[in-house]
Amino acid sequence: MRNSRTIVLIVLVALAIVAVLVPYVSSYYYTDVITMLFINIILVSSFRLITLTGNWNLAQVPLMGAGAYSSALITGSLGWPFWLSLPLSAIAAAVIGLAMSYPLARTKGFAFFIASYAAGEAMVLCWTRFKVPFGGWTGLVNVPPPGDIGGISFADPTPYYFLTGIIMAACLWVMYRLARSRIGATFHAIHSQESLARSIGINITRYKMLVFVVSSFFAGVAGVLLVHRMWAVEPNQFGWVPTLYLLVWAVFGGTRTFVGPILGVTVLTVIGELLVPLAEWVPMIYGFILILTLLFFPEGLEGIPHRVQSWFGKTRTRTAAPGEVLSEGQLTEGQH
Amino acid sequence: MEFVAQTILNAVILSSFYALVAVGLTLVFGVMKIVNFAHGEFYMLGAYTVWVLFAVNGWPYFATVVLAIVLVGLLGVACERLVFRPLRGNLLSGFIASVGLVFVLQVAVGRIWGVGKMKPVPAPYRGDVVSVGGVSVDVQRIIAFVGAVVLVALLLLFLNRSRTGRALRASSQDVEAAELQGISVNRAAVVAMLLGSAMAGAAGALMAPIMSVYPYMGGLVVWMAFVIVIVGGQGNIKGAIYAALMFGFLNTIITTVWDSTIAALVIAVFMLVFLAVRPQGLLGHAE
Amino acid sequence: MAVLELQGLRKQFGELVAVDNVDMKVEEGEIRGLIGPNGSGKTTIFNCITGFLHPTGGKVIWQGEDITGEPPHVVAGKGIARTFQLTNLFRDMTALQNVVMACHLHTGVGLFGQFLMTRRTKKRDGEIEERAIELLETMGIGEVKDEVAGALPHGHQEALGVAMALATEPKLLLLDEPVTGMNPSETKDMMERIRRLRDSGVTILLVEHDMKAVMSTCERLTVMNFGRNICEGDPNGVCSHEEVIEAYLGMS
Question: Residue B102: which of A287, A295, A336 has the nearest Cβ?
């Protein structure tokens, strides 16, 4: 155990060093790409939280939008500073998530999937339809970047890169601790044996709502970081296309481990950059990746070490593909 | 008064169109227990077949409609074999895989025939309009309506009267019992996918002269079909038809009084509430 | 004093009447057996008591309070715990982790405490772990605490299920076929532990098919058939009751 701890620490430090060097060795374009990657990492990690309870939330991207729109309105219309708007907008996203979680807690599995899509879609339609206050189809513009600190302007890519990186690290730390805590174990318990969890006194509804609210909070953070990079927001950014991309990241990377989805989004972003000359083909390539992943390695990237192990004969228990709950199926009498 | 009559007429025609698309999706869902989100792309490909052959190459319209039905049906079968069969039983994975298909098909069409521009398909009956007492409808829409009704009726006939059709219904209700009776699940799936996709292709072909044809035209259609399938009872064909009527009217009325975005909003909220309030899961009728 | 009372309890599934107007009183501190052929409604009664099913009619009174239809987590909070017929465990967690999870009920799971890992949280987590180990030892499975639950032999799994139920500090324990699939020595062991549990103050309601175990441990029996309570009394008396013999002859 000592060994793997040290390895993880070394890897993290190495990554941090690389991350710090990036803006100094590459162009503004790539600094910006990595900034977007950081934002997407927060998003996909917040998505993964909910998958701990066995639910796949299609309102995740719209909830990021909730954070983005809130911050656009707070800093744009109200004129409040970014540093105040960041926590407030994340809380706003969390509150919207709380409201959504009331009806959603009554659904699970595939019904949750579709209901969450409907909830997210309803939000995006509101932004599209109501020019006041959301700006309608064209959205809101003139969203200011974060205010200067000691002469550093966050309108520039490099400072913004570091800001995003630091916030991302903080968010990941919190989400990681949560997933590893007894609360995280409870989420997993709810997913694996719901009846048992109920019988030992766990209020399933409350936990589902809790994870949804926390997840929405972090999606909101991602949204705030997004809107203050683009200085504008429009409903199209949170429609079904970005949601589909989120799904591809999660499926490709796997959601069983904390780092799975992060791997997924990172590898796919790299692939996306390598394929820039073929940009119009990228959605199709993503589509193929999605299908091939589901057919041939449903555990995703994070399952690869395990796959390799089983080739060498050291088989372990199988991890679940999206939509499967292994333990439940092995135990309940009438499996539907 | 005429306004009401016109609205009702529009609603009925829209409902017939919804029914055609939704019934195909219901069949696939009921038999294969898979939701094919690429159903909208099958619809789109039906429309493109008509555009390519009729509008661009001048083939006779009805011939191209028939060809669209056949080609899309076959494409559906191919997808079943390659993508859905291995994932059978896992609802979520099947759905996500169908999302992958959406991407693939949309980009393929967009690359071959271009993305942004709407393809106009000239009405084979040159925009003739029929007017009865202040209520008017163009002939093309009447043709589409009649086509939709005929196809749905044929499907119902097939499911109720033919042996294969009854086998499909049995598979839809209880897979294990059906297998015990010697019905091959694989074959049922192929037939379901063939017919279901063909229906979508037919809808696209019939609607091509009326609607704008572009690679993303399937998106709105499939969501609506999906809503209808779920509200209609997931696999219940008659239920889907009733639900199609209901949503056809709902959509038309709301769009007429307000606008289509509000209509979409109402439907999204409706779905959320519907799913939250229904005590049973999304799969199966009662648990 | 009757600590659990079923008044006219009824549960229907469409046309099928699974529980048909059952009256039953369980006294505090007794070990009551609930027996009957398969399908006589025993597990359905458990499910109605613990809130997994909503009764179609009748009442469940616990310690004088009407808890009919309360959800399972609330019922657990009021002091009724249960095990499941097909042993329900968190299969990929260790035995210890399973019991720790079940200790959840009586510990505040502080959100911020878990983040910050304050000294108080660490201390409380330590206390929970100690208690969990104690519970495992009470059920005789202390040595396997770090084994993955899904890999345990059947007898240990049953014991773990009971340990988890105990973790919720129940006053009434509903055991659903606790010795099914056990060999005679394991059975004797489990029944002995059940007696000791009762002696420590837990009322026990037991569903079981193993007649030897039932006769030797239960002080009173309630016999069910076709969803009805056909007979109640001490084990010997009940055995000679006509309807009971019919029920069992009919089944064997």
Answer: A287
Does residue C88 sit at the A interface (CB-CB below 8 Å)? yes
pLDDT tens-digit profile of C57-78? 999 999 999 999 999 999 999 9
Q: pTM value? A: 0.88
B165 touches chain A (CB under 8 A): no
Q: For residue B220, is it within any domain?
A: yes
| Domain span holding position B11 | 2-115+135-277
Contact A287 B226 (CB under 8 A): no
> What distance in Å separates the CA atoms of residue B246 and residue B243, rounded to the nearest whole number?
5
Q: CATH number of the domain that B221 lies in? A: 1.10.3470
Closest alpha carbon within chain B to A128: B261
Provide the number of structural domains found in chain B. 1
pLDDT band at B215 (very low <50, low <70, confident <90, very high): confident
Q: What is the pLDDT of residue A125?
A: 93
Q: Is residue B121 part of a domain?
A: no
In a domain, A77, yes or no: yes
CB-based contact A177 C125, cutoff 8 Å:
no
Whole-number Å distance between alpha carbons of B151 and B20: 7
Same domain? For A200 and A246 the reply is no
Of B93, B102, B259, the CB nearest to A294: B93
| Token duo for residue A228 | 């203050």
**pLDDT tens column, A286-323:** 889 889 988 888 877 777 776 676 666 655 445 555 65
Separation CA B220–CA B212 (nearest Å): 13
Q: In this structure, what is the dihedral angle of CA atoms A152, A154, A159, A165, given to the nearest 10 degrees?
A: 140
Answer yes or no: do A158 and A198 share one domain: yes
Can you read off the two tokens belonging to residue A98?
């709380």
CA distance B82 to A205: 39
ipTM: 0.88
Which residue range is the domain that position A189 belongs to?
26-238
**Closest alpha carbon within chain A to C50:** A199
> How many beta carbons lie within 10 A of that of residue A49, not counting itself?
25
Based on the fold, state whether residues A253 and A167 are members of the same structural domain: no
Q: Is B91 on the interface with A (CB under 8 A)?
A: yes
